[in-house]
Specification:
Length: 344
């Protein structure tokens, strides 16, 4: 049994990021029964809604589409469970977590072992200006942007545009990019992960087509996946792309400080927090990724001072979509317009 040791004083204890790691270690142990329950209350409704959407095609295609949109929320939650498996936080057995993650990877269109490796790189390098490009949202500094060729600037602006990032981006990521082990192409292990996931996906989609034709693919599979993918990309974006995030050159970068100060606490309504499996409590997750998602609220309950770190409401997060350049002088993310106004 894990005993929570909370500060005895009414005044919060000031701790460094490294000290917080020691405090958070007490929350790392998963509860096997709770993990199974969290899996069941996600998988069962997901499958039931898929079946209900299929049945509803004989009544109303609009009803089918509506059910599929709702089911996207459960798909987001399945991805977050897969995410916990990748961190070894869902079950005590690493092997069980990994195999569950691989199965869920077929449903989420995400080769588990490939994603696990690139996500591990993200955790080990988030906020390090010299290690951008794998498992992150690539962000240029103001100086880099000013020094770039006009075509490179145009390319960057196009990629960072909300229509690209949250429109075309999710389709590209889940339907195209995830089909190959990009960034890990020289490893047989990751080719096996990508190709076996692709093969399993082809079998599933072929089965759906055989029994239902194109309709369930177009009205259930496609909208559910795309909406869940868009929500997932947005969540990942706001977890690190906010005005007062943190980036540093390698010599000044610290893993734990970057985790705590470069990750947001995305305060969502309770229902959205449930569907996103508490992934909005991202600063705590990045500081100690072995904590199961269902224990993250316990951390904020026991240590209220952590709830004051980089809070971001839904309204505030919308402004993050226009922030694209890291300003090393003012140490904040700027919009293209702000950067031009300040530096010309």
């Amino acid at each position: 049994m894990v005993i929570h040791s909370v500060p005895q004083s009414d005044q919060p204890v000031e701790r460094s990021a490294r000290e917080w790691v020691k405090v958070l270690a007490q929350y790392r142990e998963p509860n096997e029964a709770r993990s199974v329950l969290e899996l069941l209350v996600t998988v069962v409704p997901f499958v039931a809604l898929w079946a209900l959407a299929w049945w509803s095609m004989s009544i109303s295609l609009w009803l089918t589409l509506g059910i599929s949109i709702v089911n996207a929320l459960f798909l987001v939650r399945l991805f977050t469970i897969q995410h916990d498996c990748g961190h070894g936080a869902f079950f005590k057995s690493r092997e069980v977590s990994d195999w569950l993650g691989r199965v869920l990877g077929v449903i989420t269109l995400t080769p588990y072992d490939v994603w696990r490796r690139t996500h591990s790189i993200h955790h080990s390098a988030a906020g390090n200006l010299e290690k951008r490009g794998i498992g992150d949202v690539y962000t240029m500094t103001v100086a880099e942007y000013q020094a770039a060729h006009p075509l490179r600037r145009l390319q960057y602006r196009m990629v960072r545009h909300p229509l690209t990032m949250f429109g075309l981006g999710p389709f590209y990521l889940f339907f195209l990019q995830n089909r190959l082990p990009l960034g890990l192409m020289d490893s047989r292990k990751y080719w096996v992960s990508a190709m076996t996931t692709n093969l399993a996906l082809v079998v599933v989609l072929a089965g759906i087509y055989y029994f239902g034709g194109l309709a369930p693919l177009l009205l259930i599979f496609l909208p559910t996946t795309l909406i869940a993918g868009t929500a997932g990309v947005w969540l990942f974006y706001v977890q690190h792309q906010f005005e007062h995030t943190q980036y540093d050159e390698a010599q000044n970068w610290d893993l734990h400080e970057a985790a705590l100060k470069g990750s947001s606490y995305y305060r969502l309504p309770a229902v959205l927090q449930w569907f996103s499996a508490n992934i909005g409590i991202h600063h705590v997750h990045h500081l100690y990724s072995r904590i199961p998602f269902y224990r993250l609220p316990d951390v904020l309950r026991d240590y209220a001072e952590l709830a004051d770190n980089n809070q971001l409401t839904i309204r505030e997060s919308l402004a993050s979509a226009r922030l694209h350049l890291w300003d090393e002088k003012t140490r904040r993310l700027l919009s293209f317009r702000e950067a031009k106004a300040i530096y010309g």
